[in-house]
Structure to design on (226 residues):
């Protein structure tokens, strides 16, 4: 139990579908992150929120749309995805994005498959 | 900007043998260093971290790592591995508010 919960754990969707990934943390953290983990590739940081404000968007295509309604919840809205978007999507949280030396705590991820 | 290099993409080892997973980093400023483990179908779990002080850091599951500033390395070691240690291991470096991960090393423990 890491204190970071992601749902669903698995998702299969067609390219024209719209779905959302959810992340919730119970650690009292103020920073939340979305990562993409593809086979044979390093972890890719997608988005960062600190105190509910988006602070980083690492050139992520607009078919991925994050939402952070409060410091405990983070969503990733998906629409018209491509087959290359199939991957494990990991959510993480940390105390404060601006503090150095803070480890990130990860959820177990959502395995996304695009048909 | 910083970077992290994990020199081995896969490390096969027999059960009860010692293992070392290598990590080198590059940064123009002081860094904090981490090792994470990822078991199949799970997220990343923090194994240990170096913030300051003693260069030998002990973590969970019998792992330890040594920070070597002159060689810019943070190698992970375990004196005797178990089958259950089979997983992907990630080294990470934090400078300022940026956390950079290495490409990962798959540890495969054989009976």
């Amino acid at each position: 139990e890491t204190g970071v919960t992601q749902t669903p754990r698995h998702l299969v969707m067609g390219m024209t579908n719209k779905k959302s990934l959810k992340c919730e943390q119970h650690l009292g953290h103020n920073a939340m992150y979305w990562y993409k983990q593809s086979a044979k590739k390093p972890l890719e940081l997608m988005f960062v929120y600190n105190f509910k404000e988006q602070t980083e968007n690492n050139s992520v295509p607009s078919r991925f749309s994050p939402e952070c309604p409060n410091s405990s919840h983070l969503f990733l809205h998906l629409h018209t995805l491509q087959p290359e978007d199939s991957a494990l999507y990991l959510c993480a949280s940390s105390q404060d994005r601006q503090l150095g030396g803070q480890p990130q705590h990860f959820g177990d991820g959502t395995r996304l498959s695009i048909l | 900007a910083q970077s992290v290099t994990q020199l081995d993409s896969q490390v096969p080892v027999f059960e009860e043998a010692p293992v070392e997973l290598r990590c080198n980093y590059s940064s123009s400023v002081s860094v904090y260093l981490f090792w994470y483990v990822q078991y199949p179908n799970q997220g990343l779990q923090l194994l240990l971290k170096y913030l300051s002080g003693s260069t030998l850091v002990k973590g969970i599951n019998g792992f330890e790592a040594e920070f070597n500033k002159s060689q810019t390395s943070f190698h992970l070691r375990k004196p005797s591995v178990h089958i259950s240690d089979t997983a992907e291991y990630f080294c990470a470096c934090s400078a300022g508010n940026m956390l950079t991960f290495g490409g990962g090393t798959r540890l495969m423990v054989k009976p």
Q: What stands out?
A: Chain B has no helices and twelve strands. Chain B touches chain A at residues 32, 34, 36, 41-46, 49, 51, 90, 94-97, 99, 101-104 (CB under 8 Å). The radius of gyration of chain B is 13 Å. Chain B has a mean pLDDT of 94.
